Amino acid sequence: MHDNLIEIRDLRVAFNGREVVHGVSLDIRRGECLALVGESGSGKSVTAHSILRLLPAKTVSTQGSIRYDGLDLVSASDKQLRSLRGNRVAMIFQEPMSSLNPLHTVEKQIGEILVTHKGLKGKAALTRTLELLELVGIRDPLSRLKAYPHQLSGGQRQRIMIAMALANEPDLLIADEPTTALDVTVQVKILELLKSLQQRLNMSLLLISHDLNLVRRIAQRVCVMREGEIVEQADCQTLFDSPQHPYSRLLINAEPDGEPVPSTHSNTLLSVQDLKVWFPLGKAWFKREPQYVKAVDGVSFELLKGKTLGIVGESGSGKSTLGQAILRLVDSEGSIRFGTKELSLHSQHLMRPLRRQLQVVFQDPFGSLSPRMTVEQIIAEGLVTHNIGTPKEREQTVIRVLQEVGLDPATRHRYPHEFSGGQRQRISIARALVLEPDLILLDEPTSALDRTVQKQIVALLRDLQIR
Predict the structure, then answer these.
(1) What residue spans in the chain does CATH classification 3.40.50.300 cover?
(2) What tens digit of pLDDT does each residue of 256-282 get?
(3) What's the confidence (pLDDT) of residue 260?
(4) Residue 63's closest CA among 54, 52, 78, 50?
(5) Model confidence over 130-145: pLDDT tens digits?
(6) What backbone phi and psi angles, to 5 degrees, belong to 297?
(7) What pLDDT score was predicted for residue 264?
(8) Out of 76, 182, 421, 438, which could bridge 448 as a Cys pair, Cβ 3.0 to 4.6 Å?
(9) Longest C-alpha distance within the chain, in Å?
(10) The pTM is what?
(11) Do 356 and 386 meet the contact criterion of CB atoms below 8 Å apart?
(12) 280 exposure class (CB count in 10 Å sphere: 0-12, 13-18, 19+)
């Protein structure tokens, strides 16, 4: 008989009366890694959030039982839950930018956990904070203590979240897409870290992921979710060798191919020459030379019309800053030539009509979507700004692009917080596509998407590129 840390039985979760998780039952054993996989919107994150009762009580009803070490969490008191959260059970959220406090430094955010749960202060807290930053691969951790979230790259912010979750050496770590924002080399380091901690602390790990390569590397057992139900449970090797459910086979076989799109154009669409983006480190005192962070330093390249150019590198290497400079969202030096126009000479007023031809999909879908606007308003905003079509024509255009990115047009009246991370990224892509631009800058465009949707989006982008 297995020693279970978590036992979930017939879990049913409804939002405003609409059930989204239908009778889920699963066990998480002590010292094991259980992976919960499935497409965006399948109920993975809702199931995980139910364990810690993090769903909004006013709009959510939960039925069934969730027993943690003998305690029923569905009926647990707020005091019992407070002693559990962040201490015996910790969670890494999918979107670090919306989870970290933008007004607090790295040192303060990690230190708050150490003070609250461990009673560590002063030098002891500082020492432990530095140890955690080193564990998750933060370069020169001492220099990052006073940094704020907006001063870190997406991957660095995710590593800070992981450090915070590991601070109390929890019995159970719930990891919701823990390596989504990390580059490949750091993904391997984080996986090795999680595996070693799991063995050393006999820690259980609930891994929520659409990255089947990650799941295969670290998980002992796998639960496959679809439309709020678990359709298959098996040990990891068995699932990958001989999946029984058709949906499990679909997930495993959904690997985008890397064949390039043949180009029928040869003229240059974008030319970047000696581009520099330097950020000053404070002011220069007593005639000393000012110090700079050279985020982008002398970059040059050309992009032909109809071609795809990939820019790769680790988190913090300057990839996103380069994209922001091309879009004139940050100050830069050098030449940026788009078609026949020199963007570096254009004021923000002159840039406005050009932005119809030059669109972007940002890395963080939640942070780039207005929480006060419906999906239809978000996607149609560009059409309204550039005075394209009648209201009825705009509505039909929104419906069309939602279908193209695999979203139900009937959801267009909802708000971003009502969608999963992957669904929000698809909304971001739809917003960029709606203006039919000449160039789209994609900053980690599929990082938040599961494999089947990645394949759809890559196929969609290739098809649009050909047309």
Answers:
(1) 4-253, 258-352, 355-467
(2) 555 555 555 568 999 999 999 998 876
(3) 55
(4) 50
(5) 999 998 888 889 989 9
(6) -135, 95
(7) 52
(8) 421
(9) 73
(10) 0.66
(11) yes
(12) exposed
